[in-house]
Amino acid sequence: MTQAAIEEENKLIAQEYKELLRISYQTLTDEDKKLIRSAFEIAVDAHKNQRRKSGEAYIFHPIAVAKIVASEIGLDAVSIASALLHDVVEDTEYTLDDIDRMFGETVARIVDGLTKISHLKKDMNISQQAENFRKMLLTLNDDVRVIIIKIADRFHNMLTMDSMPEHKQVKIASETLYIYAPLAHRIGLYNIKTELEDLSLKYTEPEVYNSIKDKIEDSKEDQQAYIDAFSGIIDNSLKKEGLNYIIKGRMKSIFSMRKKMIAQNVTFDEIYDKFAIRIIYKSDIQNEKFLAWKIYSIVTDHFTPNPVRLRDWISSPKSTGYEALHITVMGPKGKWVEVQIRSERMHEIAEKGYAAHFKYKHGDQKEQGIEVWLNKLQEALENANTNAVDFVEEFKLNLYSKEIFVFTPKGELRSLPKGATPLDFSFNIHTEVGMRTRGAKVNGKLVPLNTTLSSGDQVEIITSDQAKPNQNWLDYATTARARAKIKSVLREEKKSVAEDGKEILRRKLKSQKISLNEDSINKMVSFFKLKTSLDLFYRVGIGSIDNTMIKDFASSYSNAFISFFKNRMRKSPAQEDINKDEITSKYDMLVFGKEEEKLEYKLSQCCNPIPGDEVFGFVSVSEGIKVHKKNCPNAISLQSNYAYRIISAKWIDSSQQEYQADIVMTGIDNLGLVSDITEVISDIMHVNMRNLNFSTDGGTFKGKITVVVKNKAVLKKLTDNLMNINGIDKVTRI
């Protein structure tokens, strides 16, 4: 580069720095400016020999990220300094100790968090990628600013991606949609979330993006005319009340339009709520709520509201801190239009998220709302011994979720994700309550644990010391916290069954003159086509690998000659990690409906579901049940047009399946007989009673019970024990 070019670049760098201070959302003290200045100088020095792909000096990137942090997100000086330094430790000579020495522990901690998560391995497979996301989400606990600066860094990368090769663009854009946009949403950074989604669409589906963008451009004038017509009607009434306000229109984002087009199966022109109208009013804190409802009443005087579409987030703000009143009214030209009513303070919170919160909370600069959220997540994160893909999926569930508000029996308000059940509510109150849940009352009535809650429900949890989570609970719970807890209890339970199974197997092999060692375990795992040794012990423990099967194995194991040829024919793939500490599911059977029945079915050609996919059944006229993936392109039209022909379906692991059996007992009636019977049943592991029916007649007794068992061995043990009860004469299975 020529001397003149270098000087020009330095001038630009200095200009950018001044701009950074000027646009900061928080008021900066002299102390703050000093901190930012020294961070800037260190960053310039550290990156002096680096250039970006586009050819410009690297330092422009940290400055740009710092500008996003300062103005668009509105964080404090510590965050601005950390953003300037976010690549220093990773890419240059400077170490974390240097940063700690020069800028103190907080900045060092944030920079360390950013360094930890920034170098994802290149071109990784999905599980490696998920592992990295998981590491990133775990750093959420250290300091929430880490994740906010990371989002700003990603935002700037998305804005400057043009000089990258296409495959890189697609990868980075997909990653942004997968994790960064939901995170931005959850932290209340709605503007950045929208930008991230739109930019991602620009690289993942360029044609779609451009066509929607052009249509939005074309309809700009019509939109403005509509807003003018709308405000013209209510302007006088608002002015008469002496209100100080502005009315703005906001076009829905390109990404959300695309989502609507897919979900509702409509074209761009058929989307009816393309934009929202915002009324932003000036008010002091005392009168905010009163004025919001006053404006609401004026708007609904002129336009008919849709009563179902009123959203009051002023009385109970979202957990992201969002406050506003949303109404949908029939506007001019017979069009439904969403009207958002918010004060200037609410508007700032909607735009800036937590930064605006603590601007208004003077003094205490703690991110209140986010603390609560992080504490909730802490538990899910700490229990993160599931595999990484599951973990990230569960975590994502809770990022985008819409909220409902429900009451405890004492009238306390709790916020839960939309779709939550009484089981989620019980874990929301306390893990111990969740674990001991026996039943639930909603608005005073007993309901099943998988009932979907609605806003305003009052929920009471009935607990019992005997209650404990079972496999079905995973179908009932939707929140990451509840699911993480249930999974960890089930895992522990399965491990203890596996411990017993190991002992049973040791004894049974001993009787076949085979000792239980690494070799025999490996061969058994491969013989039964399982994945881990824990799978083997667990299945022996629940009896789905029984005596006959073990004998089959023993004979092939002892006859080395035969097994040599068998193994040549059935080349067993190298066991990945047979000693893994998890029991794997081998999804190999489809069951339908609430009763989980086995029915005849065909897999549909349009989406080719494979075992483990989320699926549903569709009862077709000529071909019986066709199974489709839940995200099949035809799913939406089938579910909306033929809802009555949809049947729920899921893949299960047949070796862990439970079966229903009916048992009939007859005998002589005596006192305490019923309690003896139920005691025997509840004492045997893996047995669940579905229903029971006892009748006595002239001193004789007849009982019928439906039990749920894992296999025949358990059923036999149960019938033998029932026979031993005093007074029972005969036990038969129907």
Automatic annotation (TrEMBL):
Q: Has UniProt tagged this entry with the keyword Transferase?
A: yes
The TGS domain, residue ranges = 402-463
Q: Biological process GO annotation list? A: guanosine tetraphosphate metabolic process
Gene Ontology terms, cellular component aspect? plasma membrane
Q: Name one Pfam family in it.
A: TGS
Classify the source by domain of life: Bacteria
- The answer, when asked if Kinase is one of the entry's keywords, is yes
| Cited PROSITE patterns | TGS (PS51880)
Query: What family is reported?
Result: Belongs to the relA/spoT family.
Q: What's the stated role of this polypeptide?
A: In eubacteria ppGpp (guanosine 3'-diphosphate 5'-diphosphate) is a mediator of the stringent response that coordinates a variety of cellular activities in response to changes in nutritional abundance.
Do you know which NCBIfam families this protein is assigned to? spoT_relA
Q: What is this protein called?
A: GTP pyrophosphokinase
